[in-house]
TrEMBL record:
Protein name in UniProt: DNA-binding transcriptional regulator YhcF (GntR family)
GO molecular function term, any single one: DNA binding
SMART domains: HTH_GNTR (SM00345)
Transmembrane segments annotated in the record for this chain: none
Gene3D superfamilies: 1.10.287.100, Winged helix-like DNA-binding domain superfamily/Winged helix DNA-binding domain
Domain HTH gntR-type: 7-75
Length: 124
């Protein structure tokens, strides 16, 4: 995983976990990698992963079974979707709208490229 400097590492790891959930690679009640396993996999400090798991737990995306590990919450998909939608609406959409406006683009200009993207993405 490549980290960027524009966002805290623990939030980038949270994005990674949410993406696995949104892609339905990790489903409700699935056990997520242990703190140590994910830290080794992503080459980060275990404290960073623990901070991520705390944040995900507070967001209702995962839960902890003491002594067993962390699991995707029964409503984890919906919680991850809500968190990512809110983040998109607050952070990405204003930049997107600004670029549309500055480039003089219309919604119709986006239809074909978006359809192509969806087709390519769904074929992966």
């Amino acid at each position: 995983m490549q980290f960027n400097s524009s966002q805290s590492i623990y939030l980038q790891i949270a994005d990674f976990v949410c993406e696995r959930i949104l892609l339905k690679e990790w489903k409700a009640e699935d056990k997520v990698p242990s703190v140590r396993e994910l830290a080794v996999q992503l080459e980060v400090n275990p404290n960073t992963v623990m901070r991520t798991y705390d944040w995900l737990q507070q967001s209702g995306i995962i839960y902890n079974q003491r002594g067993i590990g962390f699991f995707i919450a029964p409503g984890g998909l919906q919680s991850a979707l809500a968190v990512k939608k809110k983040e998109f609406m607050e952070n990405d959409l204003p930049v997107f709208f600004r670029n549309l406006y500055l480039l003089g683009m219309k919604w119709e200009d986006l239809k074909e490229p978006f359809q192509q993207f969806k087709q390519q993405f769904s074929s992966k």
